[in-house]
Amino acid sequence: MTEFADLYAAIDATTKTNEKVAAMTAYFKQASPADxxxxxxxxxxxxxxxxxxxxxxxxxxxxDAGIPAWLFTECYDAxxxxxxxxxxxxxxxxxxxxxxxxxxxxxxxxxxPLGGKSEPEQREVITHAWHQLPALPRFLFNKxxxxxxxxxxxxxxxxxxxxxxxxxxxxxxxxxxxxxWHPTAxxxxxxxxxxxxxxxxxxxxxxALAHPLEGAIEALGNPDDWQIEWKWDGIxxxxxxxxxxxxxxxxxEELITDLFPEIRQIGxxxxxxxxxxxxxxxxxxxxPLPFADLQKRIGRKTVGKKLLADVPVxxxxxxxxxxxxxxxxxxxxxxxxxxxxxxxxxxxxxxxxVGTWQELSEIRLGAREAGTEGFMLKRLNAAYGTGRKRGxxxxxxxxxxxxxxxxxxxxxxxxxxxxLYSDYTFAIWDxxxxxxxxxxxxxxxxxxxxxRVDAFVRQHxxxxxxxxxxxxxxxxxxxxFEGIQLSKRHKSGIAVRFPRISRWRHDKSPEQADxxxxxxxxxxxxxxx
Length: 529
Hints:
It contains 20 helices and 22 strands. Helices cover 35% and strands 23% of the residues.
């Protein structure tokens, strides 16, 4: 556990990417396969199911530290992070032998079995661990058992470090790590083996992703150098047909074959050794249905006949990654598109747009009416990359919808924002002249603005409900969002997609915030609200 704690400290102490990669590289070079695979698992953002109720943890920690529950709550409120609060109140009393136990032993012998133990047994195991571990390993143990472990690295950086430590190319590692895998020493040994194919028959390729367009569209040069498609509002997916089987993977690396039998059927009709990249959309009469309809198919274990009839889906395919069992991602997009067009199957081929930038700008104005979010711009001479490669794929989205709303609730954030009130709920005026909660937003303010809002929340709290504070309705923010729909689950009767703060409206009073009547007009495409 000591080595993993040292790695965490090294990563947490720097903002420089190369230093983070160097720290991970050094760790992977010396770690055993059993430790390395768990480090890789946690660093890349995966986590086992949380087995412990955090309320119980708070109670056990308070009793172990000999302080009343109210004092623990006050400490937690000041620190803002449960794992850190527990670590601090328990002091420095610890044995070193607990720190020397390996990461894999802690996970497999202590953390994973917690879910199968009785409450008294859980308490005994956890409190014993608290007194075995020094401060930093104890903090990490708390993070792991609460499922809250995070550190400032991405999966791409983990793969870069593994590549440097093992000599296996990062794209190969990225492919081998896609989809479902279990953190075992055997998996890690196969992962870094030069000759291992990792049983890739069911695995998707790492998805290529786009950057938001920056600057003027004309800066991209000749539009004939770009493949221009609609940016669809659905579920990004790869459809794989290999060795007589079909697999459908979401961009979130979830196997969703059984959720979408229509997409499975499309895959079953593909030539063997084919991998398509595209978007799953709710679809009827040649047109996409709203994402809200597609949501009815998401998160269900089974899909009944009525839902299949009410919300039919299809695959809009826009790229071909494998053909006749050959990985063709290194071919230019123009060639991949030609090969995609030659496949005889019942998917929808993504239509392309051509014209001058001015003509394309005018077409883009009709994106919402077409059920899309704008355009995707993909360089025709580029290979299919892994992750976001600047200058290759751009998303040229429509301008977001905006609403002026009033801050009514605030809650502490997490991570580096744990001590700040940075999670906000906003309201708009209903027909009776009351403020009704409308949307939550967690991003959009810079650090200085966030500190100023935090000070306002502390000075203007009206009520407390657990971690949430009701504040004087005084601050007005402009919220931006990508979509809006009617919703019976929300008090306002509407729900928005991807809300964020676009600016602080210092020029507006709460009375000048938007009304529910005007905001509902946006549902019908009236942007004058």
